[in-house]
Amino acid sequence: MAIVFERMTRMRFRCRITGVGPPLFRQAFPMSSMLPDCHHNKIICLIPASTKRCLSTVSTSTSSIEKDDNFVRVRFAPSPTGNLHVGGARTALFNYLFARLFIPFLIFLLILPRFSHFYTDLERSTRESEEAVLKDLSWLGLHWDEGPDIGGNYGPYRQSERNALYKQYAEKLLNSGHVYRCFCSNEELEKMKEIAKLKQLPPVYTGKWASASDEEVQEEIRKGTPFTYRFRVPKEGSLKINDLIRGEVSWNLDTLGDFVVMRSNGQPVYNFCVTVDDATMAISHVIRAEEHLPNTLRQALIYKALGFQMPYFAHVSLILAPDKSKLSKRHGATSVGQFKEMGYLPNAMVNYLALLGWGDGTENEFYTLEQLVDKFTIERVNKHGAVFDSTKFRWMNGQYLKLLAPQELAKLLGHHWKRTGILMESEGLFVEEAVELLKDKVDLISDSENALTNFLSYPLFETLSSSEAKPVLGDSLSEFANSLLAAYDSGELFDALNQGKPGWQNWVKSFGKSVKRKGKSLFMPLRVLLTGKLHGPDIGASVVLLHTLGSGDIVASEIGFVTLEERIKLLKEVEWKSFNNNQTVLEPAIISQ
């Protein structure tokens, strides 16, 4: 995978058939003619037949070319101006899966360009952002074979290091007459837009300097007038491509107008950079977001003028928010880094992103990355927008957590509990048993924080004061508490807990007979008295775990953990008549040791 960093990030993959070299850059059509119909020979069987594409414009002459379809090389171009957006991550994933579809030997090429369609200020591209993008991609398991960090045969892989190349091709276009110098000021350009708006015409450049004489041009250069390079767009004709996802797409050239390829400060614009990069890096398939579809017209004209071969195009639909608008920060977390911090697993994210716009035609929803490589085809990518369902994503992550080996899950949650200051240790018997007890309530790693603190808490007085506890109080809870305290004081409950869960089960059966209770009437009061809650995980496993924890030395003092022994002492201080009379009883502030 290759990577070019800067303003916009671009990632590329290559897949090669053994013994076949990289494609030659051939003149795809006469430099002086319009874009003709392009037909290709039969594609190798490893490549789906639907990857054939046709590019055409209205023209007075046509010619056919052959494309080297034995060589597949794709790229991804995120914008290194922050963390990787989930939409960009999905595009990267689709590129990766498409490359892996063909042959096990591949190059996943990531390029981080300077410019993006949305951001043009150089300052926003930083090496920190570049590293964040690479880190996110690596976390997802999308590893590359070419890039600024590892090099490759098609470098350099940062656009800031490719300025000489862009200038070289800009001069080639100038010498061939495909671009010209434009000396229009910003004021003149704004006036053109206003006039076009009044006439209800597209805001295209009028071509003021398109036919200027050499003398006029040289005079402006002598005066030091700033100028841009504008591409000379044919005034008639149309462009048609067969997008691998969206089908046939066409544009009329008369809606475009001559566009800038080099700014007055000598910096190339996005559409020029992306075309030169894709061509000189031997990109055969461009799989990107649909918002780049309008750029294809300009890029196709540049390809033609430079004599480069057109790649195949596939424009992936946008990821939408529940309100069907484009997913953005106002909808909550949108970057890979944010979801990672929230406790999502990389394999769950890869799985969910793959399902946003793709499916293998079955009811299956769970795929490993290796299975996706085996199942993925570009034909099954939907051209309609996919809604990002955070509830389903969360559920899917929970399923992946539950599939982890017990030791691996305990390591993840134990580390999180220690890092968040709940426990003093990240491993051990208590961690293992706590994970086993609480895992069903954990969909995200971060969920385990609340799950454990809730388990360790003892909100007895708050619970007894709640309206929900009235039926339990009314079922002779005070008499039940006395029987429980007697069992503890006699040592029989303590001895039973020393035997673990089997000991608890034997004791609770015997205790139930002694108080003439069973089922809910037995276990609900036990839960309230020993855990201080009306709901929670298995009461037997909970009490045994509390007993195992003992004095709670591994629990941070800030948590305010109440040991099982301390809970018994609190029960002895409860004024049951006050609760029965619906009077508020304050929890004792200090527990005697």
TrEMBL record:
Domain (Aminoacyl-tRNA synthetase class I anticodon-binding): residue spans on this chain: 410-546
Principal subcellular localization: mitochondrion
MF-aspect GO terms: ATP binding; glutamate-tRNA ligase activity; tRNA binding; zinc ion binding
Gene Ontology cellular-component terms listed: chloroplast; mitochondrion
Entry keyword annotation includes Methyltransferase: no
Regions crossing the membrane: 93-112
Keyword terms: Aminoacyl-tRNA synthetase, ATP-binding, Chloroplast, Ligase, Membrane, Mitochondrion, Nucleotide-binding, Plastid, Protein biosynthesis, Transit peptide, Transmembrane, Transmembrane helix
GO process annotations (BP): glutamyl-tRNA aminoacylation; post-embryonic development; reproductive structure development
Subcellular location: Mitochondrion; Plastid, Chloroplast
Domain Glutamyl/glutaminyl-tRNA synthetase class Ib catalytic: start-end pairs: 72-395
InterPro entries the UniProt entry points to: aa-tRNA-synth_I_cd-bd, aa-tRNA-synth_I_codon-bd_sub2, aa-tRNA-synth_I_CS, aa_tRNA-synth_I_cd-bd_sf, Glu-tRNA-ligase_bac/mito, Glu/Gln-tRNA-synth, Glu/Gln-tRNA-synth_Ib_cat-dom, GluQ/Sye
Keyword Glycoprotein: no
Family annotation (CDD domains): GluRS_core
The reaction(s) this protein catalyses: tRNA(Glu) + L-glutamate + ATP = L-glutamyl-tRNA(Glu) + AMP + diphosphate
Enzyme Commission identifier(s): 6.1.1.17
Role: Catalyzes the attachment of glutamate to tRNA(Glu) in a two-step reaction: glutamate is first activated by ATP to form Glu-AMP and then transferred to the acceptor end of tRNA(Glu).
Recorded family membership: Belongs to the class-I aminoacyl-tRNA synthetase family. Glutamate--tRNA ligase type 1 subfamily.
Protein name: Glutamate--tRNA ligase, chloroplastic/mitochondrial
Provenance organism: Daucus carota subsp. sativus
